[in-house]
Design brief:
single chain; mainly beta; Jelly Rolls; 4-stranded antiparallel beta sheet; 8 strands; 66% strand
Length: 164
């Protein structure tokens, strides 16, 4: 018989205000940003070797500009360490060109799961927009966009542990 296991859910909303990225064609078709989108902290000390699922669900709104390629990185910092490590990279292409009829919003969905043998206690996951690459060398040579959504962390105990 399977016994129920413990789970913890944490989430954090993000609202990345409009940002304009200027490209100098052809010299600078990639702009490094390293801008935090959202972060969430989860303490799994009460779970035995948890399986963790990190989920970002949101929208990218193209306010003005050509299509671009967005690179996002998910970082993890545990147990109060100041050193963080990259655990996942997500690439998203905004394929629609601004048509002047109003903002164009597209769905962003990123997921990362892990089953750490380290059994970290308290970890913070941070999603950053690391860079933006210009796809077309047409005018305008800039992109104005915003990102909003929710970053969630779900941790579930992977095994039952008899502490007696």
């Amino acid at each position: 018989m399977d016994l129920p296991t413990k789970a913890i859910l944490r989430s954090s909303k993000s609202n990345f205000e409009p940002l304009t990225v200027v490209f100098t064609i052809p010299e600078h078709v990639v702009q490094t940003l390293n801008q935090q989108i959202s972060s969430v902290t989860i303490n799994t000390s009460c779970l035995y070797c948890p399986n963790t699922l990190i989920d970002f669900s949101g929208t990218l709104t193209n306010l003005f500009g050509d299509p671009a390629l967005f690179s996002f990185t998910l970082f993890k910092t545990c147990k109060g360490n100041i050193l963080r490590r990259s655990v996942a990279t997500f690439i998203y292409t905004n394929s629609n060109i601004f048509n002047g009829a109003g903002p164009d919003s597209q769905t962003l969905k990123f997921k990362h799961s892990s089953c750490d043998d380290e059994c970290d206690d308290c970890c913070t996951y941070t999603l950053e927009l690391t860079n933006v690459s210009h796809i077309l060398s047409l005018s305008p040579e800039f992109l104005t966009f915003s990102i909003n959504g929710t970053l969630s962390a779900l941790a579930v105990a992977s095994k039952h542990h008899n502490f007696t």
